[in-house]
């Protein structure tokens, strides 16, 4: 086993406005290079748990370490749909008041629990010919991808102050919350987009155990190393 280079799992509480790629890029720079990756893209407008994997052996085990369910809290605003599915996009359609009733919203939730088919969102990191779909979308190039089959285990309405509804979601790998919000709004007889999204859990890791990004910025490499979790058990040496 090689020694000397840092490796492990860093749990980051990502703030709004920062891309997952940027978090990885900065952590890599702080550590002076090496292999750094993340355990699942978190949209720039979203906040919450972003697992960062440090070291080649650890990044190669991302699926084993982080392959469990994910948990989110999302806020859906009824009234208009955007091309990105969140507040960062351009308005693509408007419905306006009257807003769906709580009873109407509750009545459609069951349609989205279990195995669900989702359209691949145009503004996503899903790859097509080596490039993420958002690369094509920003250039006005339409790309057709086959629908995705994803699993939603829990979808509960927590709070409703029209036009905003807050939901708790537990899901499997690959589920897009922006698509879920859009489809849910349509099913309720309206249009909608996400105005807030927070990832609370990835597999057995929770956001309560993550390091706020501002703290990492203040401490740099020392703070990263202080919060790096050892995950060496069961990892194969790469030579």
Give a brief outline of the structure:
Helices cover 24% and strands 33% of the residues. The protein has 239 residues and is an alpha+beta fold. The chain has two domains: 8-67 and 206-227, Pseudouridine synthase; 70-121 and 147-202, Pseudouridine synthase (2-Layer Sandwich), CATH 3.30.2350.10.
Main features:
24% helix, globular, Pseudouridine synthase, single chain, two-stranded antiparallel sheet
What would you say this structure looks like, in words?
The protein is an alpha+beta fold and 239 residues long. It has two domains: 8-67 and 206-227, Pseudouridine synthase; 70-121 and 147-202, 2-Layer Sandwich (Pseudouridine synthase), CATH 3.30.2350.10. It is built from seven helices and 14 strands. It has helices at 20-30, 56-59, 62-66, 102-108, 133-137, 177-187, 213-227, and strands spanning 8-14, 36-38, 47-54, 70-78, 80-82, 91-94, 114-118, 127-128, 131-132, 148-161, 164-171, 192-202, 205-206, 211-212. The strands form three sheets. Strands 1, 2, 3, 4, 7, 10, 11, 12, 13 and 14 form a ten-stranded mixed sheet that branches. The protein has a two-stranded antiparallel sheet with strand order 5-6. The protein has a two-stranded antiparallel sheet with strand order 8-9. A hairpin with an 8-residue loop joins strand 5 (80-82) and strand 6. The longest helix has 15 residues, at 213-227. It is globular, with a radius of gyration of 19 Å. Mean pLDDT is 89; it is low at 233-239.
